[in-house]
């Protein structure tokens, strides 16, 4: 119970009905992440009061709203006050004490509960107001910017007005007041460091950011008392599709995405059932000016009852961060922090539903044979980001894989994993791929020679994430994904097309190379997977493929695998010449190092000793010139 002291005949002083010091400190310093949130909360309360009066006027004409009902925000630089006024339902003396005098008690919540218990005859479901506040702490966010808060309110249908005032230090006063019409005025005596909220442009920015789609008109009073509209007042996503033009969709897309193109896809739907929400999402038609790799968080905006809450609710996973738009629900409380939102079960369900909706849209478009050119434009823009989902999202991997497109050694343009599998040779064991820094370099890689000789297709990967995701996917349609650098044993089982000649012996050369390179390679062996090249590197089979090893090495990280294998082509003139030298007992240590560096360069790596390699090549060229002379 609140304790009451009579200060004089007209003013009553009350103690707050809770541990106000601790709770106000929580509201001011912990519950809200942004100081400007106070304006959102007070505007939300005003909107609720207006909605409540509109609803109750359905059964009581005496409570009808004025024709010009609005929320009015009036800064006064001379007095250093900010006033938020509405023409809503207003509060009686008892309401002020009950709703503002007890922390975490909400009149809105009580009314919402009563409304939910009402029988159909008492109010049509279609006309029920959308009430925003739920926990009753939003009002106290005013103390983040104000030393003192004064609330003057007159309940609709009565002639009495009352004034509530407090400095937030443990008590409040209530006294009789005057107000011409029903509604509420909240006057904030701003702190010295809150002067920015006396500037009209700053108030306009906050309203547009946090409350642009509240249905009640919001105006800001500028110089000479001129009122300027601050919100659009229309939640586009809550309208039916038939009410919205293409131009309105495009305009809203540009607003939420900060892009200037047209959306590649527009997703607008209403989810109903145990969990209800509206979604209006857009897939951009072009890459944004700022690379999507720069900020890996999804920025889809979360609204509650049309009120913007945050764009950091992670409504979509990081690998769909290129999607822009709004999700609005009535099933979440407004007055909670971002941290509290993360653990809300309802939000988890919304995330799952929204992600499924986007994936289904992409899947349908990827399967539309008549519009593959359009889908390829999307994939060229955002394919690398989609691939991150294979690496990060275990649950969705099987849904993401069919959305991917690839370059290939045997196909013009793009292909899919499913199409690759349909073209596999009967005896082929896996889906083979090569990762390189760019597609053109990949096409020329010696790693492909053996596959080309056997007519085996290889996918060419060159995106920044391609070194990571194939191992995470593992299989597609029961076929393993395997890097060509780890496929020497596979090729040995396939005979090259038109290859009948015996492989020359090179045992002494292999032994000499092993001895010379024992600190740099795990093994040296001959191979029949090379046609035009003398050497190639292969993975030892004990760890990631060679491209991943290079990336980890550049990042200064160990990878736990063995050193690479050096494979030599015994049919190549260079190898045959070195083999003859080894048979003659010559020292080939220096040539062995040059041979390994050649293999490294072919794979996009650098020589172990660039200066030494340059000297060796120069010496070899000089010897060639001398011999020719």
UniProtKB/TrEMBL annotation:
<feature type="binding site">
    <location>
        <position position="86"/>
    </location>
    <ligand>
        <name>ATP</name>
    </ligand>
</feature>
<keyword id="KW-0067">ATP-binding</keyword>
<dbReference type="InterPro" id="IPR001404">
    <property type="entry name" value="Hsp90_fam"/>
</dbReference>
<keyword id="KW-0346">Stress response</keyword>
<dbReference type="GO" id="GO:0016887">
    <property type="term" value="F:ATP hydrolysis activity"/>
</dbReference>
<comment type="similarity">
    <text>Belongs to the heat shock protein 90 family.</text>
</comment>
<dbReference type="InterPro" id="IPR020568">
    <property type="entry name" value="Ribosomal_Su5_D2-typ_SF"/>
</dbReference>
<feature type="binding site">
    <location>
        <begin position="134"/>
        <end position="139"/>
    </location>
    <ligand>
        <name>ATP</name>
    </ligand>
</feature>
<keyword id="KW-0143">Chaperone</keyword>
<feature type="binding site">
    <location>
        <position position="45"/>
    </location>
    <ligand>
        <name>ATP</name>
    </ligand>
</feature>
<feature type="binding site">
    <location>
        <position position="41"/>
    </location>
    <ligand>
        <name>ATP</name>
    </ligand>
</feature>
<feature type="binding site">
    <location>
        <position position="99"/>
    </location>
    <ligand>
        <name>ATP</name>
    </ligand>
</feature>
<keyword id="KW-0963">Cytoplasm</keyword>
<feature type="binding site">
    <location>
        <position position="184"/>
    </location>
    <ligand>
        <name>ATP</name>
    </ligand>
</feature>
<feature type="binding site">
    <location>
        <position position="91"/>
    </location>
    <ligand>
        <name>ATP</name>
    </ligand>
</feature>
<dbReference type="InterPro" id="IPR036890">
    <property type="entry name" value="HATPase_C_sf"/>
</dbReference>
<dbReference type="Pfam" id="PF00183">
    <property type="entry name" value="HSP90"/>
</dbReference>
<dbReference type="GO" id="GO:0005737">
    <property type="term" value="C:cytoplasm"/>
</dbReference>
<dbReference type="Pfam" id="PF13589">
    <property type="entry name" value="HATPase_c_3"/>
</dbReference>
<dbReference type="InterPro" id="IPR019805">
    <property type="entry name" value="Heat_shock_protein_90_CS"/>
</dbReference>
<dbReference type="GO" id="GO:0051082">
    <property type="term" value="F:unfolded protein binding"/>
</dbReference>
<dbReference type="InterPro" id="IPR037196">
    <property type="entry name" value="HSP90_C"/>
</dbReference>
<protein>
    <recommendedName>
        <fullName>Chaperone protein HtpG</fullName>
    </recommendedName>
</protein>
<keyword id="KW-0547">Nucleotide-binding</keyword>
<comment type="function">
    <text>Molecular chaperone. Has ATPase activity.</text>
</comment>
<dbReference type="GO" id="GO:0005524">
    <property type="term" value="F:ATP binding"/>
</dbReference>
<feature type="region of interest" description="C">
    <location>
        <begin position="551"/>
        <end position="629"/>
    </location>
</feature>
<dbReference type="GO" id="GO:0140662">
    <property type="term" value="F:ATP-dependent protein folding chaperone"/>
</dbReference>
<feature type="region of interest" description="A; substrate-binding">
    <location>
        <begin position="1"/>
        <end position="338"/>
    </location>
</feature>
<feature type="binding site">
    <location>
        <position position="338"/>
    </location>
    <ligand>
        <name>ATP</name>
    </ligand>
</feature>
<dbReference type="InterPro" id="IPR020575">
    <property type="entry name" value="Hsp90_N"/>
</dbReference>
<comment type="subunit">
    <text>Homodimer.</text>
</comment>
<feature type="binding site">
    <location>
        <begin position="106"/>
        <end position="107"/>
    </location>
    <ligand>
        <name>ATP</name>
    </ligand>
</feature>
């Amino acid at each position: 119970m609140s304790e009451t002291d009579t200060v004089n005949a007209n003013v009553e002083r009350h103690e707050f009905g809770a541990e106000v010091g601790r709770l106000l400190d929580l509201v001011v310093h912990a519950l809200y992440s942004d100081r400007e949130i106070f304006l959102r909360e007070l505007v939300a309360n005003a909107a609720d009061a207006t909605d409540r009066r509109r609803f109750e006027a359905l059964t009581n004409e005496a409570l009808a709203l004025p024709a010009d009902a609005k929320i009015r925000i009036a800064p006064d630089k001379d007095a250093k006050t900010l006033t938020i006024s509405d023409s809503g339902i207003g509060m009686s003396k008892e309401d002020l004490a009950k709703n503002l005098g007890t922390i975490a008690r909400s009149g809105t919540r009580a009314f919402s509960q009563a409304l939910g218990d009402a029988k159909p005859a008492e109010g049509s479901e279609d006309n029920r107001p959308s009430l925003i506040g739920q926990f009753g702490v939003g009002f106290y966010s005013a103390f983040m910017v104000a030393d003192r808060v004064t609330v003057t309110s007159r309940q609709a249908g009565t002639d009495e007005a009352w004034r509530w005032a407090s400095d937030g230090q443990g008590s409040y006063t209530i006294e009789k007041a005057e107000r011409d019409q029903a509604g509420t005025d909240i006057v904030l005596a701003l702190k010295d460091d809150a002067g920015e909220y006396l500037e009209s442009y700053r108030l306009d920015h906050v309203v547009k950011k946090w409350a642009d789609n509240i249905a009640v008109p919001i105006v800001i009073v500028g110089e000479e008392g001129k009122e300027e509209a601050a919100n659009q007042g229309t939640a586009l996503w809550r309208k039916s599709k038939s009410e919205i033009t293409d131009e309105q969709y495009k305009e809203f897309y540009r607003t939420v995405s900060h892009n200037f193109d047209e959306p590649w896809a527009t997703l607008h739907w209403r989810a109903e059932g145990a969990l209800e929400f509206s979604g209006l999402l857009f897939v951009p038609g072009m890459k944004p000016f700022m690379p999507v790799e720069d900020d890996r968080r999804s920025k889809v905006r979360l609204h509650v009852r049309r009120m913007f809450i945050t764009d950091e609710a992670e409504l979509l996973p990081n690998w769909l961060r290129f999607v822009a738009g709004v999700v609005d629900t009535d099933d979440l409380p407004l007055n909670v922090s971002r941290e509290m939102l993360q653990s809300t079960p309802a939000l988890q369900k919304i995330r799952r539903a929204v992600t499924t909706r986007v994936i289904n849209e992409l899947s349908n478009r990827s399967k539309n044979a008549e519009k593959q050119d359009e889908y390829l434009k999307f994939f060229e823009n955002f394919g690398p980001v989609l691939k991150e989902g294979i690496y990060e999202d275990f649950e969705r991997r099987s849904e993401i894989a069919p959305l991917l497109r690839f370059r290939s050694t045997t196909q013009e343009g793009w292909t899919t994993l499913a199409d690759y599998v349909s073209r596999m040779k009967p005896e082929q064991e896996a889906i083979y791929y090569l990762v390189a820094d760019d597609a053109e370099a990949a096409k020329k890689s010696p790693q492909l020679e053996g596959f080309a000789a056997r007519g085996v297709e290889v996918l060419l990967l060159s995106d920044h994430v391609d070194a990571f995701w194939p191992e995470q996917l593992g299989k597609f349609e029961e076929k393993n994904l395997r890097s060509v650098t780890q496929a020497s044993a596979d090729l040995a089982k396939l005979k090259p097309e038109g290859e009948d000649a015996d492989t020359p012996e090179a045992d002494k050369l292999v032994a000499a190379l092993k001895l010379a390179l024992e600190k740099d390679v795990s093994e040296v062996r001959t191979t029949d997977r090379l046609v035009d090249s003398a050497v190639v590197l292969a993975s030892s089979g004990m760890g990631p493929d060679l491209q991943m090893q290079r990336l980890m090495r550049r990042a200064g990280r160990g990878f736990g695998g063995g050193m690479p294998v050096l494979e030599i082509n015994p049919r190549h003139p260079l190898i045959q010449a070195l083999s003859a030298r080894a048979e003659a007992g010559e020292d080939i240590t220096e040539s062995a190092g040059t041979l390994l560096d050649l293999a490294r360069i072919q794979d996009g790596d650098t020589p172990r000793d660039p200066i030494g390699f340059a000297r060796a090549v120069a010496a070899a060229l000089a010897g060639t010139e001398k011999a020719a002379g």
